[in-house]
Amino acid sequence: MIKVALDAFGGDYAPDVCIEGAVNVVKKHSDIHVVLCGPEAQVKAGLEKFGYAGNGISVVDAPDLVAMDEHPVMVVKKKQKSGLVMCVALQKKGLVDASVSAGNSGAMMASCLMLLGKSTERFGRPPIGCALPTKDRRIVLVDAGANVDERASTIVDFAIAGSAFAETYLGYSNPTVGLLNMGEEEHKGPAVLQEAHQLLKSAPVNFIGNIEGRDLIAGKADVVACSGYTGNVVLKLLEGFFELHQEMFGTIDTPAGKRFAEMWDYRATGGALLLGLNGTGIIAHGRSDALAIEKAVEVAAKYAEMGVAKKVNERLSAIKDDDAPAQA
């Protein structure tokens, strides 16, 4: 039995979508148990609303609420009884196998970092590793929004973490790594990307040089490394593109059209994994609906069952042992 803690009041449409998503998961998967963390009376009322009275869901009282604009560190320090912090604390105590929140992403990252800890101190800042669709397969985008204002050496760490994730989760052998930039030439882009390019040439990854946005969706690289700011813009641009496509055309009733809808619907991914931590922390989209929450819990359980975080950390530590210490 895999146990996943879910922040019941995280996200723009919580708690209803979180509770509905949890109910849908346990109805489909007898091997997944969801621990809903939030104000107990309201969560139980929500379960009653959706007609669930089974044993696949338990409730942990977490009365504090976290707003999207609250300072991440202050949330961890002052709102330890919030659903967001509680779902990570339960994992730290070994009571659950994974933690999921669609709430304040900065606070979720801070909670995971401060409570679960990094796999190695030689690794800089934990990034979000996101499996993105491309022309015919999935690739890894890293960082998808956990950090801003990174040094060049930190972007190199992102590439290393993304490479380890692509190997362990997607099964890619010696995955190719591209640096997302405004041109293929190594002297293009801001100074930090030019420096990162030079560092990646000698980094322990299969670096193929700069790639542009069109190369990303064509699947030119198995791993696309970029700053968190850029990665988040790319992620939301692709989400908006899918929504516009569906609004204009709907699901086209051909094999290719159905495949496109299946691959590009960001709700099917559910959430993204924070890489380089001693545990499984999943950040889901703030706009998640019940389907996205359902998929986030499913992917969290899958990561936990496969031991993805542990395998990534083993690979990451092995690489970093032969690399120079990172600078945060």
Order of helices and strands: EHEHEHHEHEEHEHEHEHHEEHH
CATH class term of the largest domain: Alpha Beta
Helix content percent band: 40-55%
Number of separate domains: 2
Reported CATH architecture of the largest domain? 3-Layer(aba) Sandwich
Structural class comes to: alpha/beta
Q: How much of the polypeptide forms β-strand, as a percent range?
A: 15-25%
Low-confidence sequence ranges: none
Taking all residues together, what is the mean pLDDT? 92
What is the name of the CATH topology of the largest domain? Isopropylmalate Dehydrogenase
Q: Numbering strands along the chain, what is their spatial order in the largest sheet?
A: 3-2-1-4-11-10-5-6-9-7-8
Radius of gyration equals 19 Å
Tell me about the biggest sheet? 11 strands, mixed
The CATH fourth-level homologous superfamily of the largest domain: Isopropylmalate Dehydrogenase
What's the tally of helices?
A: 12
Q: CA-to-CA gap between the ends?
A: 37 Å
The number of strands is 11
